Amino acid sequence: MDFSIIAGNIDIYLEGLKNTLILVTISLAFGLIFAIPLAVLRTSGNQYVQAPIRAFVYFFRGTPLLVQMFLVYYGFGQFDLLKESFLWPLFKEAYFCALFTFSLNTCAYTTEIFRGAIVATPHGEIEAARAAGMSTFLMLRRIVLPSAFRRALPAYSNEIIFMLHGSALASVITIIDITGAARIVNSRFYSPYEAFLTAAAFYMTITFTFVFLIRRLEKRWHGHLQPADQSVTKIEAPV
Amino acid sequence: MKRILAVVSMCMFLAASGLALAKEWKEVRIGVEGAYPPFSYVQPDGQLAGFDIDIAKALGKAMGVKVTLVAQDWDGIIPGLLAKKYDAIIASMSITEERLKKVGFSHKYYQTPAKFIIKKGTMENFSREAIKGKSVGVQRATIHDKYLTDNYGKDVTIKRYGTQDEAYLDLAAGRVDMLLADSVALSDGFLKKPEGKDYMFIGPDLNDPKWFGNGAGIAIRKEDKDLAEMFNKAIDTIRADGTYKTIQDKYFDFNVYGE
């Protein structure tokens, strides 16, 4: 065990940390932005709108992230049509391929999470909104989506953590993320234990930071589900 | 006290059985890579083939032991040896100072220089100036990775791949400008193939022992000195009886052993 190797190469890890955070944040942002309208459309009655969304979600949930990334990174590079098109400068970059795959992947999962949350909206709330004369859009904005976000939060926080851990696959396509940094350090010093343990520590720190932030958000959004204030209960309890 | 005794005797027993194993090698498990043509690759039918593979089998025959091949990804190949997943590595591994800190080696079984390749017509003459700003692909954890990192780390963007095959794909897709690897692997694994026709060697033969070591040897765990000796003898045997030349001629039209 020789952690001086790590101390001497901490800059590689810091670069990896930067890349992991950028990849995960941007992918999650894009995934979330596209998932909300997709989830709404997926729950709309029209089956011609629903079918392609359902196919998209099936594909990305039904195949491993690694396979999707290989398809995009090595697979797309095989088609001359794409290589000669204006899109190639984008797909040439490993970074873009990773962002593209991760965004689509997390978008598919998030769509499904939100779809579940929207479907679970209590009937009474919708009836009440209708009775109050709200349009469909107004009802979505004021009633359905806010309560769906609340219900989706615990499942979505899981998705954030899965995405963080899934991002380790970016190291396979030459990107130096936290795992990529560990692989470089491992290959240079042949010390897998120190190299990957450090990577694990980085991931754990990020995960727990996320968890902490989400818990604060949950406290706020799920305030109505928390047990009543302890101090109040104490006073009311008979002696 | 009893417990300590038990632990001590257990340890001694394990040590003794380890010694007993070391004395007699009936079966040798050999770690190979399988993604480094023409030295090591997987045939369409799923069988391993290549120079390394044939050498491994020939050496096993010369030593009179049963050889089991274990395919293992390159950047985990030394940890796999240390974890006793196999007993030796025959995977075009150069004998370098860095690796000698972790594993032992037999004598070399071949030695070829390293070289850069690039797309034809994109560079006139090789120089540090000329390659500045280029992206160069190497296989991770190789001597080429280390050489490039130490010598050109500040001048070029290094892209590291798990296998040489992935590096070829990205060169053909235009994602990297150049590759640095073993000259024979590059020539037979890429340049001579249809997808490599627009590419060529550039720059000098690289063989500075500081980075490139003294040829490719068979890696073993440090404690298995007897196994290294067996391999050394077997290398001499197959070189003397013509087996080595037969295998060499199957893959190359030049002397791959070096001087």
The largest β sheet of chain B comes out as:
5 strands, mixed
In total, the number of strands of chain B is 13
| CATH class descriptor of chain A | Mainly Alpha
Distance between the termini of chain B: 60 Å
Low-pLDDT windows of residues of chain B: none
The CATH architecture of the largest domain in chain B would be 3-Layer(aba) Sandwich
Kindly report the CATH topology of chain A. Answer: MetI-like fold
Number of domains of chain A: 1
**Helicity level of chain A:** over 70%
Gyration radius of chain B (Cα, Å) is 20 Å
- Count of helices of chain A? 12
Structure description:
The complex is a heterodimer of chains A (239) and B (259). In chain A, helix 2 packs antiparallel against helix 3 and helix 3 crosses helix 7. Chain A is flat, with a radius of gyration of 23 Å. Helix content of chain A is 79%, strand content 0%. By secondary structure, chain A is mostly helical. Chain A has a single domain (4-227), classed as MetI-like fold (Orthogonal Bundle), CATH 1.10.3720.10. Chain B has helices at residues 2-23, 51-63, 77-82, 97-100, 128-131, 143-152, 164-172, 183-191, 209-212, 225-240, 243-251; strands at residues 27-32, 35-36, 40-42, 48-49, 66-71, 88-94, 104-110, 114-119, 135-139, 157-161, 178-182, 199-206, 216-220. In chain B, the strands form 3 sheets. A 5-stranded mixed sheet of chain B has the order 5-1-6-13-7. In chain B, strands 10-9-11-8-12 form a 5-stranded mixed sheet, sandwiched between helices. Chain B has a 3-stranded antiparallel sheet with strand order 2-3-4, covered by helices on one side. In chain B, helix 6 links the parallel strand 9 (135-139) and strand 10 (157-161). Chain B is globular and about 70 Å long. The mean pLDDT of chain B is 89. The interface between A and B is medium-sized, with 17 and 25 residues.
